Known about the structure:
Blueprint lengths: L3 H14 L4 E5 L9 E5 L7 E4 L6 H12 L4 E5 L5 H5 L3 E3 L5 H10 L4 E4 L5 H6 L1 H21 L3 E3 L2 E2 L23 H20 L2 E7 L1 E3 L12 H11 L2 E4 L7 E5 H13 L9 E3 L3 E3 L1 H9 L6 E4 L3 H8 L8 H7 L7 H21 L1
Parallel strand pairs: 3-4, 3-6, 4-5, 6-7, 7-9, 8-9, 9-13, 10-12, 11-15
Antiparallel strand pairs: 1-2, 12-14
Bound molecules: nicotinamide-adenine-dinucleotide (NAD) and threonine.
The site of nicotinamide-adenine-dinucleotide has 29 residues, from helix 6 and strand 10.
Family: Belongs to the NAD(P)-dependent epimerase/dehydratase family.
Pfam families: Epimerase
EC number: 1.1.1.103
Amino acid sequence: MMPVVQLLRAALKHAGNRPPRCVVQTTSAAHGVRTHASSCTDGDKPKVLITGGLGQLGVGLAKSLRRRFGKFNVILSDIRKPPNHVYKNGPFIFSDILDYKNLRQIVVNNNISWLVHYSAVLSAVGEHNVALAKEVNITGFHNILDIATEHGLRVFVPSTISALGPSSPKDPTPDLCVQRPRTIYGVSKVHAELMGEYYHQRYGLDFRCLRYPGIISADSQPGGGTTDYAVQIFHAAVKSGQFECNLRSDTRLPMMYIDDCIRATMEFLEAPEDALVSRTYNINAMSFTPQDLTREIQKVLSDFKVTYNVDPVRQAIADSWPKALEDSAARQDWGWRHEYNLPELVQTMLTHITLGNKLASAF
Ligand SMILES: NC(=O)c1ccc[n+]([C@@H]2O[C@H](COP(=O)([O-])OP(=O)(O)OC[C@H]3O[C@@H](n4cnc5c(N)ncnc54)[C@H](O)[C@@H]3O)[C@@H](O)[C@H]2O)c1
Ligand SMILES: C[C@@H](O)[C@H](N)C(=O)O
């Protein structure tokens, strides 16, 4: 038999490992399903599920969330096999957002309280495969909404500059304005913004949405968007000293360094409910053209050369997007501040990629 002291220790350890305590109450029915709002009480750590976690943004966000809430409180998921370093660094599971039953099982079995919904088909790939974009970005999103409502989750869904169109004010684009995007990706993001806001009013869903600019990262590759050139250009500059750009040299778009994007997401996720006047906010950092970016890179790598071979699909998409986002509400309501402008972005990206390449070739 276990001695009393050992039993007490085991009980205390068990209490320390208990999943977050949740208040469960029944609310009205969504889609005929009885819903349970289980919001975590103050002081409890959330249990977070990230969908589409193996894309450009998920692994970086998981790393920051794990630092804050603990390794085992953040589960990455995707339909692809993770690379070894991701698999070894914390919980990873298969989850196809189109499989409602499996998604629900994951949420229930892991006592999920926050859902970060990153699965998506981005702008350029979406235009080449509208059926897939419709399925993943709209049908998949419906599954997320219903499961989040049914289980009282806080749900974060990124929107994008893509949710704006040629008739939107462009420089800067306010939070509230005409939205008539010309891509299936953009249409699906407007749908997500509106459905999330509707579910918030109708069922009390804690829906949170940020319109991200194009995101630039050194360690992860972009997944088929129109702003991808702004990541690829850095790798080409370091590797070969030349780059063929698929957008016109004067195409000005809003962009953000990944660290700012991740910090914004974490701060917004943790913002108190009563601070949020809106459910969807613009966040802005910098805007530049391929020509501006080339000049800034040439300050460090003076021999770097860029040529242009414009992709008409991507160019038409970029021409319909904002040049800058107006984000004063995010700054006022929950304290958003960006840290990286163009010079810091270029220094940081070149340093990371050069160091990464040196380390890789040393092994
Ligand atoms: N990266 C950017 O510049 C940017 C800008 C604005 C908004 N966003 C938004 O942020 C989110 C994350 O973007 P990202 O750049 O990491 O995207 P990404 O394209 O790099 O990754 C998307 C991930 O979704 C996964 N996925 C596809 N179908 C799925 C399915 N049926 N079930 C589960 N997962 C599936 C893919 O395997 C992929 O890993 C997306 O919603 C995107 O719209 C990104
Ligand atoms: C802007 C963003 O949504 C994505 N990087 C795209 O270009 O599609």
